[in-house]
Amino acid sequence: MAEAKWYVVHTYSGYENKVKANIEKTIENNKSLGEQILEVRVPMEEVVEIKNGARKTVARKMFPGYVLLNMEMNDDTWYVVRNTRGVTGFVGPGSKPVPLTEAEMKPLGIKTENVSIDFAEGDSIAVVAGVWKDTVGVVQKLDFSKQTATINVELFGRETPVEISFAEVRKF
């Protein structure tokens, strides 16, 4: 089996979520594809908009017209993705898709390496790097896809949830 890598697919503008749904439906209907196409993402970011003096947080597509796929590249997967309604092609020269590098994946919050951790939800941990360095908190939630832990820290006399990278914390 080939190694799964992240690829970028170009879509018609506004069709990103439809393409994601169509590919996921195809995977659901063909179980062998589920082992080759592992994840389909439309990268989103939280943006604060101010309209008529009111602040509003909205989710906005980071890359309109593009969808990210974590998949093993072979003739079958290429054919399925390329012939999905709304897809115009893979990003890369000609018809040869080029996988994203580790450096390109990092700003998207998608990490390919797995970090093993020695703590679980409910454990006390100490932050050893970053803005919250030397802070102690209790793990509330672990997100292995983003490689982050949500901990409660005391801020202005209140318990406040903070999301911190696995690399920045140690078991207390």
In short:
The protein is an alpha+beta fold and 172 residues long.
Q: Would you write up a description of this structure?
A:
- With 172 residues, the chain is α+β, with helices and mostly antiparallel strands.
- It has 2 domains: 5-108, NusG, N-terminal domain (Alpha-Beta Plaits), CATH 3.30.70; 124-171, SH3 type barrels (Roll).
- The chain is built from 4 helices and 11 strands.
- A hairpin with a 2-residue loop joins strand 3 and strand 4.
- The radius of gyration is 20 Å and the shape is globular.
- The mean pLDDT is 84.
Question: What topology emerges from the helices and strands here?
Answer:
Elements (H helix, E strand, L loop, with lengths): L4 E7 L4 H14 L1 H4 L2 E5 L2 E8 L2 E8 L4 E6 L3 H8 L4 E4 L11 H4 L18 E4 L8 E8 L4 E8 L2 E8 L3 E3 L1
Antiparallel strand pairs: 1-5, 1-6, 2-5, 3-4, 7-8, 7-11, 8-9, 9-10
Outline the biggest β-sheet. Answer: 5 strands, antiparallel
By CATH, the topology of the largest domain is Alpha-Beta Plaits
Percent of residues in helices comes to 10-25%
Mind telling me the CATH class of the largest domain? Answer: Alpha Beta
Number of strands: 11
Distance between the termini: 40 Å
| Radius of gyration, whole Å | 20 Å
The poorly predicted ranges are none
- What's the name of the CATH homologous superfamily of the largest domain? NusG, N-terminal domain
Arrangement of strands in the largest sheet: 10-9-8-7-11
Give the quaternary arrangement of the chains. Answer: single chain
Tally of discrete structural domains: 2
Average pLDDT reading: 84
So, CATH architecture of the largest domain? 2-Layer Sandwich
Number of helices: 4
Shape: globular
Topology as a string of helices (H) and strands (E): EHHEEEEHEHEEEEE
